[in-house]
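Notes from the 1:1 (GR / supervisor)

We went over the backlog. Supervisor wanted to see one worked example end to end before approving the batch request, so GR pasted a single chain during the call. The sequence is below; no edits were made to it. Supervisor asked that the structure be written out right there so they could see what the output format looks like.
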Amino acid sequence: MTYRPLADEIRPQTLDEVVGQRHILGEGGLLRRIIDSGAIPNLVFYGPSGTGKTTVANLIAKRTNRPLHRLNATTASISDIKEIIGQIGTMLAPDGVLLYLDEIQYFNKKQQQSLLEFMENGQITLIASTTENPYFYVYNAVLSRASIFEFKPLTAADVLPAVGRAFRILGERLGSPIRLEEGVEAHIAAACGGDVRKAINAVELLGAAARREENGTPVVTLADAQTAAQRSAMRYDREGDDHFDTASALMKSLRGSDPDAACHYLARLLEAGDLITPIRRLLCSASEDVGMAYPQAALIVKALVDNALQLGLPEARLPLAQAAILLATAPKSNSVYEAIAAAQADVRKGRTGDYPRHLQNVHADSAGMERDQGYLYPHDFPHHWVEQQYLPDALAGTRYYQYGDNKTEQAARAYWQKIKGEG
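Structure output shown during the call:
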């Protein structure tokens, strides 16, 4: 008998059996209405692995009279596309074909463009799936001819019925219902990270390794389930959206002064073995989000980062967590960010102008062309300050830096107002 993976055996046969995705497949959902109509347009499915993209494509194929061709962009080539196109208009595909293209982000521009003519005239109905943001990885010409639907990550509650069904089918295979210790199904559903395929694979592994009681009943323990599903909840790809989403969430949690969320996203990065991304975010946040409100934060974070790099994982988690909590609980000011951003904006617009003569390098004058520079050395004056122009004439009086409303910057503002005799 040919082996059939459990994940394939329990694949839904109707839209009602699809796990999750009620926002597009529930009663009245747009994608459900499109599928029920039988008039299938070109589609792009976007979302994490194991959320039902391939399953829905299979169900759509049942609604058409066209032959279904499957390609995976990681291994397919132009010749594979030409072979499919060659069938169009023949007895093999008189009314065109339905092409399911998995991982379309791995097709280059030329490969994607080879589909356009046939998508345009309706001879190919394309259903493409991708785990990456299609607006970044799929060419505009393809996107303009397709409707995009996002498949969202599944919750543990979404996955739990599929896990129960998988254990029931597995029991039928084994010839006896499987006895599960309390919490087994719930743990697998929670630990799979919203990926049904991972959950079912874990069930199949546990079934194969199940111990038998004296009466022959297979039993799965919670300890075995924890071992089989460990780290399955991690969704992380250093080159994909997960990487950038996790890094962004860490940065925004630091900025939002939420130490709990900061620790959570830091933990996700560290559990994936990524040390560099959190280090860069922490160093950046020290200047971008805390800045002049607590200038010492940059020094402390740098010291903690150095400790982390010397320690390596797993111990590096301690100084990095300390840095994250410090930044999340520190007073905030983005005055540094705003100042340099405003200055760069002027430079990019060409607002520069000549250097004031008294700021130029005295060694730049050619022999016989010496001019009085007129530079006033601040340290020769009371309080080490003297009024003189530093910005180019074209920018004289421009203010880039604005003091933040925190204690540290307001103290500096008061100090300089007094020295400069400002109101």
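Supervisor's comment: The chain has a mean pLDDT of 84.
Batch request approved.
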